[in-house]
Amino acid sequence: MDIATERDGDAGTRRRLPPQERREQIVNEAVRFFAEVGLEGNTRQLAKRLGVTQSLLFKYFATKEDLLEAVYEKVYLGRLSSDWPDRLTDRSVALRTRLLAFYTEYSRLIFEHDWMRIFMFSGLAGAALNHRYLEHLGDVILEPVLAETAAVASGTRQPSMEDIWNLHGGIVYIGIRTHIYGLPAPEHPEEVIASAIDKYLAYFGVSEI
Asked: With a threshold of 0.85, does the pTM exceed it?
């Protein structure tokens, strides 16, 4: 079945899809396609997989870069909750609780095949997608985490952005080892995440519960 039509199960006929629905089908398949073959995959291959002509594909996305932009929006920005910055900076809640809530939710969104593979392919290709995503992540998530950690740290150690990246990267690696290296996932990833957060906070003398 091509993306221009969809079979009506009751009537046994085909109906034309609205443009927005058709566009969404293209983006969804593009996510799966680039996750499988990498960003070097071309639009001719994608059109063949979709069962449409390349010219139809270009009716919705004038260039491959436009299509990759839509993939970026879907896979990256579409998974960042708008309320995370506010929740991470809510000092009425213990920092450990805030971090645990965030990374539990975040890991559920990114620990999946397409996200991990597109992220890795994009990084290997030096694509701007990764740079933009990581810059955005730094602004809305990691910088606030740094400020919140500094606010409760005790002793002589003060957190740096490198410390935040070490925490974040260690948690993300749980998904990388599963979806990139094909290694078994932890039986209880939430426990691994909690342990990483506890070690991070303990390093800066944060003892809040």
From this structure: no
